[in-house]
Automatic annotation (TrEMBL):
One of its GO terms (molecular function) is metal ion binding. It comes from Setomelanomma holmii. One of its GO terms (biological process) is small molecule biosynthetic process. The keyword Metal-binding applies. This is Clavaminate synthase-like protein. Pfam families: 2OG-FeII_Oxy, DIOX_N. The keyword Protease does not apply. Transmembrane segments: none annotated.
Length: 290
């Protein structure tokens, strides 16, 4: 069993309510985590635990989803979006669902933008730097259900609840229930360590476009979801709620470098990048969700 990853726990309260110097101190703590492990646990992040409990209680939704990215994932998902939200059940189909999702989405959106602001502050890019490339941003709020499954099915070669991957946007907020099974590669060596559930926290991780934009200063880290550490042969179901923050589709992601420093990546268009990575990750039949 891998030991737990050493991921810092940072209180976000001083960023939300503190004076300028306190905000900057929190931004520095986040950047310290993002530029090493690439992950941080935030606590006191402005979304009450009752709201999170409500969200997890709601997770009995229309199933969907079949990842096909070089392995087999055992999961199903629902996607909630700001624009083109085609798969959201109507009020008749599921009373109150859209309203609850929209309000949680707004809270995640605010938190995601604040996390990006921390990166901008810590890197001295100008506090509003990311506002310029997130004007029309359409993050995905995803409800994931990993069904109960036999351990021997999940532990076959190439199978997982979600196979090793990096996220491909700017950053991700990740809420998980208490089951466990998420592992991350904190030293970027292929050595996965558990990112244990911690009630009252949200995990934040850097994704590929922020790694590219910062020329590897911020780290996008491989992660996967495997069997939780239980002794049973039938594994319990698991729920998680990631919120993926993406830049505007027309944003050009060109690595920012200091004088004399070489760019490690080509410039990419964020919209094309998202389309490409989405297509790579999903069976063609699910393309309609995007
Ligand atoms: O369910 C989890 O904890 C991780 C989900 C994830 O990594 C993803 O959807 O990209
Ligand atoms: Fe992920």
């Amino acid at each position: 069993m891998p030991e737990a990853a050493d991921i810092a726990i940072v209180s976000f309260d001083n960023f939300i309510t503190g004076a300028d110097a306190e905000k900057r101190a929190v931004a520095k703590q986040l950047y310290e985590a993002f530029s090493t492990v690439g992950w941080v646990y935030l606590k006191d992040f402005g979304i009450p635990q009752e709201k999170l409990d409500e969200m997890f209680a709601l997770l009995s939704y229309t199933g969907d989803g079949d990842e096909a990215n070089g392995g087999i994932d055992h999961k199903e998902c629902y996607e909630h979006r700001r624009f083109k939200n085609l798969s959201c059940p109507t009020e008749d189909e599921l009373a109150g669902f859209r309203k609850t999702m929209d309000s949680f989405y707004t809270q995640c959106y605010t938190l995601g933008m604040n996390v990006l602001r921390c990166v901008a502050i810590a890197m001295e890019l100008g506090d509003d730097f990311f506002d310029q490339i997130t004007k029309q941003t359409d993050p995905q709020l995803r409800l994931i259900h990993y069904p109960t499954i036999e351990r021997k099915i999940l532990e076959q070669e190439g199978h997982a609840r979600i196979i090793p991957h990096t996220d491909f946007g700017l950053c991700t907020l990740l809420f998980q229930d208490s089951v466990g099974g998420l592992e991350v590669d904190p030293f970027h060596t292929g050595d996965f360590k558990a990112a244990l559930p911690a009630r009252g926290t949200v995990l934040i991780n850097i994704a590929d476009l922020l790694q590219r934009l910062t020329n590897d200063r911020c780290r996008s880290t491989m992660h996967h979801v495997v069997s939780p550490k239980v002794t049973r042969d039938i594994l319990p179901s698991r729920y998680s709620i990631p919120f993926f923050v993406h830049p505007d589709p027309d944003a050009m992601i060109d690595p920012m470098v200091k004088e004399g420093e070489a760019k490690k990546y080509e410039v990419v268009n964020a919209g094309e990048w998202r389309t490409y990575n989405t297509a790579r990750n999903y069976a063609a039949s699910l393309g309609a969700a995007w």
